[in-house]
Amino acid sequence: MPFSLPSDLASRPTPFYLYDLALLRRTVQAAQHAARSRHIQVHYALKANANLPILHLMHEHRIGADCVSGNEVHRALEAGFRPEHIVFAGVGKSDAEINLALAADIWCFNVESGAELQVLNELAGRQSRRARVALRLNPNVDARTHHYITTGLEANKFGIGMAELPAVVDLLPTLPNIELVGLHVHIGSQITDLSVFETLCHRVNELQTWFEHRGLPLAHLNVGGGLGVNYQQPDAELVPDFEAYFSIFERLLQRRPGQQVHVELGRALVAQCGTLVSRVLYVKESQQTRFAILDAGLTELIRPALYQSFHLIENLTGQGAEQLYDVVGPICESSDTFGRRVPLPETRRGDVMVLRTAGAYGEVMASRYNLRDLAPAVYV
Ligand code: LLP
Q1: Can you give the pTM of this predicted structure?
Q2: Which ligand 1 atom sits closest to the C-alpha of 264?
Q3: Are residues 145 and 227 in the same domain?
């Protein structure tokens, strides 16, 4: 079925983000079904979209929270997530953020360096607490995705490199307020080549053995997120193939008895349920190009400008023969371009234009550049 706008929204001022909560529910249920039958725990990476109605739905389906800032921890608590279902990750946690998470007694800190481990130990001591910790390792696995969203290679800033790991592990006995509970890896985002996750499983198995040889059994393995979605043809795959994804971990991860396995998905859960709705302000023709200028721009959806990423663009009201348009926003940047030479029906001022698959890393990355207003969210 082609995308359509509920009739009561047709006259609403644009731009706005439209979230289909029924699709979100179906997606979350599919993920939970595939994960639970394999005894895998799903956490949701709030960074993809931290809107409260979305978080409430996640929480209702017993999904945990993966947070990367103090404000995200705070938001997760506000949305009703229990502290024991909250993980706090991030390469640069401030003292104030760590203190907040310690005071809330969250389940686990994903720690990215020896220096951070020492700070955490000290701050936990001051609160007379023990912090549960998973070491985030850099497994040096190529996610084969856009280089800006690859995180698991030695060259990236994320995680503890294999060369540093022995020294970090040697610190542990000197840190009385730290309890090592697990291992964390995350290699990148928008991963569509599932064989990457197979390679990751083999790496995690090796790492786990490495820890055990040092007398450190791991109660939990967090294998990160990264499952990609279909930006080219969203309607062909509104719900990602979670069965294929989770079955890899079921088959290849060498789980120890009683060990917990976590994933922390962002995009795969929320990307398809969100759409950016805008109107055409002007159609402008130059010598070589016909521009459709929208009232939404990189301030509402920065992914095309930042990663040259593709979002399907549809004109919901245009009629007539298809022509090619460069679809651009109103912002004073040449990179404020959503698509070049996009085939669209003849387009006029006032036409409603949507950018699909905008639920993840859309609204959360909005800015007020050019002093624009932040676009509102509408839920159906
Ligand atoms: N866990 C960690 C440690 C992460 O860094 C991320 C995403 C996730 C989980 C969730 O990854 P996902 O399942 O959503 O792929 N702004 C970029 C994506 C940045 C992803 C950052 N980390 C984009 O718009 O493509």
Answers
A1: 0.96
A2: 9
A3: yes
